User: Fold 2,5-diketo-D-gluconate reductase B from Marinobacter pelagius.
Amino acid sequence: MSFTTLPKIGMGTFRLKGNDAREAVKSALSLGYRHIDTAQMYENEAEVGDGITSSGIPRRDIFLTTKIWHDKLHASDLINSLHDSLARLKTDHVDLTLIHWPSPGDEVPMEEYLGALRDARREGLTEHIGISNFTCAQMDQAKEILGDTPILTNQVEVHPFLANRKVVEHAQKLGITVTGYMPLAVGKVMEDETLQRIASERNVTPAQIAIAWVASRGVVPIPSSTRPSHQKANLEALKIQLSEDEIRAIDALDRGERIANPGFAPDWD
Assistant:
């Protein structure tokens, strides 16, 4: 099966290591997830590959994403590193390859690494290509460089405390789907009174409300969890239809609280 769009929710694997990563991927797939997100920098591609292999779900039914780290952005490094990723993932292609971060300080020109990513797609190493942590201006630049080659997604941090509105709206205007990482703000959503109130009124969890809010904006959430019960709840969150009042109340929680903000990050919008 060839995926033309991103599945509506994914299983994130950031910070999952060793057997935890293996089991989490296997469990997510058994519960019905079909989108697994990893990256070279997570150092768990081999375990993610094991989880997929042992799940019994055919590889063609799984949407698999990996990301190129910023020390591999020179053209030859990028292609070689993607071959290495495929070997670790035990597959001949991924469904989506992202540039994990724009080149710090533009050390490697965007033309070079996006050109190499497009070559990887032509060679069949990846079905789709995309970007991650790109600003509005960088999305415009990427779009210009790639021309007719579609950018499937820009994966950025999105949760109730960082709505990331400018980037989300700009991406959607450009026809780029947004994938939202850390949709639960590393667990902080559980402690928020507004989310707790809405959750208790609906007899669900604050995490489910946060995921439903991300999804209501047309953003694909990729929550990470090792517990099957949480994985299942996260999946079920997609069924929650929030009211306009509830969405307004959650919108008001935005305080620009950015969790992923390394020293090499771009100048955020």
